[in-house]
Amino acid sequence: MTPAIDWIAVLPLLLVSGLGVVCLGVGLFVDDDEVLGWGALIGLGATLVTTAVLIGQHGSAFNGTLVLDGYALFFDLLILAVGIVVVLMSMSYVEETGIGAGEYYALVLFALSGMIVMASATDLILIFLGLEVMSISVYILAGAWRTQVRSNEAAMKYFLLGAFATGFLLYGIALIYGATGATRLDVIAEKLGGGVDHRLLLAGVAMLLVAFGFKVAAVPFHMWTPDVYEGAPTSVTALMAVAVKTAGFAAFTRVFLRGFGGLHGDWSMLLWALAVATMTVGNVLALAQRNIKRMLAYSSIAHAGYILVALTAGGPTGGAAALFYLLAYAGMNLGAFGVVLAVGRRGEPHEEIDDYAGLGFRSPLLGATMAIFMLSLTGIPPLAGFAGKVYVFTAAVREGYYALAVIGVLNSVISAGYYIRVLVVMFMTPGTVEVVRAGRRPYLFTSIVFSAVVTVLIGVFPALWLELARLSFLSQP
Amino acid sequence: MGNVLLSLIVWTPLVGALLVLLVPRDQPDGARRAALAFSLVTFLLSLALWAGFRVDTAEFQWVEQAAWVPSFGIQYILGVDGVSLFLVLLTTFLTPLVVLFSFGDITNRVKEYFFFLLLLETGMLGAFVALDLFLFYVFWELMLIPMYFIIGVWGGARRIYASLKFLIYTLTASLLMLVAILYLVSVHARTGAVTFDVRQLYGTALGPTEQLWLFAAFALAFAVKVPMFPLHTWLPDAHVEAPTGGSVILAGVLLKMGTYGFLRFAMPLFPDATRTATPLILALAVVGILYGAAVAMVQPDLKKLVAYSSVSHLGFVMLGLFAVNTIGVEGAIYQMLNHGLSTGALFLLVGVIYGRRHTRAIADFGGLWKPLPRYAAVFLVVMFSSVGLPGLNGFVGEFLILVGSFGANRAATAFASAGLILGAVYMLWMFQRVIFGPLRHEENAHLQDLTGREIAVLAPVVVMIVVMGVYPRPFLRAMEPSVKALVARIEGHRGAVASAGIVGADSEHAAAPSVDPLMNVTARTDARQ
Fold it and tell me: Is the predicted ipTM greater than 0.95, yes or no?
């Protein structure tokens, strides 16, 4: 007997993965990078619209292991939007670097479909499947620039360490299954009440923490991040820093706040320490970076730390704050990587921070947008990053984690040191690097301006987005 | 104009800032004129605010209230009372003068400079009129970035160091205040109302330890901005490196942000902690007065001298505030305005000769009276204002502060009076070395005296210095009800049980029966329309 499938529930997934297959096939015959890019863009746009139409719908498929709820929709839409921006950024980059466009876009789409599974899955096994689909696609993408040794190294490193983390995930799932006899989150949550082997369960939870910690680049599981972010093609780095992290937190949040919400007292101290270490190590090491991609890598580690603060606080406030933060983070971080792409040109990546000298006034558009992204990442009002931090710290204060909130804001001060340095270099020191005019890279500049507008809008009018995050979090079954 | 006047005042500079950016790069004069026009419009609007201001009430006036982030209780609330009214006027008065002065001073990246200057004005005005703590914090930090760029891009040789120091000092302190704000709101939320509205947060029941910690976090943020000894070390660097316009705004308005913060937020929100901390704050204020004056005396650099004199003068303001009586606080507010005018003018005057000679060393001048008679005359008035000569504004403020603080703390007042003498010493001595004596440097003989534009910048300040010196009554009368209400609020909690929010409010009625600060301000303003 085939189990009943609610096709609505898997529609976004079907569309994106189908699009990936089509892209792969068409890529064999079509040589024009721009056509392929436009195909991926239009397909993703159509999927985004279709997914948006599903808002308000509820459904579940595969014996309730995959659901369509507000939470899944929130992340589906966020991931699809990030996907669109990443494709926009890639269009001139793929052409300039000679990366094969067909497989590049197909892999991006497969990675996105894996992320959608992670956001919708309510079963540990399915989360594992989604994570693998995403990870394997991104391993390959990291090495997509085949002629670059750095890119190959990044792919190799990411793959080896990622495989290790996957092992932890599977082992953790096995232990949890051993303790509770279930892999579905709702069943596990029910069983937490009594009659389970606590040691076995906690060991499993700790294993999951390691695996998720790896995927979202939390300290001490962050070692791969700077090397991989630096070596991977910049557009792939943007995808990793934003979409992979978002999907990782989507699963992380659902599993820990919903599935193991009853054990909050057991894992919150662990997460507290993880959050403090992640924020502090990320920010302090970022201070020492000369390469902007490595700096953004450490910065993305630090931001994972802020989201961990929200998860430590737990409850609906913490959950909503985490969702909102991911939304705010997506815009400002994508934009920053967009500027990195825009400053580079064929054969001259210009990835040292010193290469940015004087750019602020020579290219006012890049200067202004980069200023917005850096100030937002620092957490200066009225930008998205500030709103995100306020809600995260509000959640921490409300739940009584005062020290965590204070450590968090002190970390913001440390982060000012390296974000502001980019502005010092851009606006206050003379330099010579010229950038390619905006008119020659219309898609890239569109994506940068779009990210900047989103960053400002979320910051000035946070109420709507915050409500969206809250309702999405609460809509979980 | 109804209820949107405050919003107009706050946002007009921002509109101007964005428009200035659209001016083509090869037309710097267009950017200059646009900036001047928008800052003047803002000034005229603020005059309308003063004209419509009622002096018979302590309530907030021109209140605007709208939801911003409803689920967090964050609102867009603006309003002025007798305390903030004049600080708003000071800001809108100084900004066009700075714009006009910068016509000649700033020659590269002109439109960007005016963009940041106008953005800064929006930040400052917003911070003075915001009645929602969150909104206040947004404006408070919004001021930081333009000032950072003004120092860092248009400043002197060590501008990067100075601007970063300014940023890190201020950011560290204000982020801790953010946590304190969130904590305060979360405590208040236990009463069932989640709000950042400072009028409702007054009187939130807090334990003594809680109050002390929260007061410390707020006070740190404000003390850095004032700046109070020993947190002042960013100030001389920032002032020396900033372009003249930046120095004027920094000294004229930004420093007042700190003292205003104490008066509006730190003291009335945490009255018990205020009382506990008063000896410490008074001690630091007196040290600041004496230390600032002593260091100013030995400065070879004119700008550094004026910068350290600010540390000294702001110490007087703190002395007046923490006397916590009507006279002292009124004196403190008056002195904030005086300091804005006189120190602003001093920085302008230093900027004038720096523009001519490209040096600020006192030793490079002397005998300027002969080649620069008009300059010397203006300098004389401003210098006497800063010293506190009777008949000029500085005297009124310092006198009120000393009278107010004498009743509260005699020892501190005695030491502070010594600071007055030191103040006269370093100012007069500096004046003597720069203006009087023989003309020691030949290149000074043919310096150009004040130009028409420079006179247009300095004349309004000199006029105000005289007006506020001989006729302080309209100013003091307008601030009196609000000051009384604030003092009653801080005093009213003295000795009261910490948990007695309502009892505290009652005792305020007893202290100042004509004043009810908790009254529903919105209703009253609506009724007025």
Answer: no
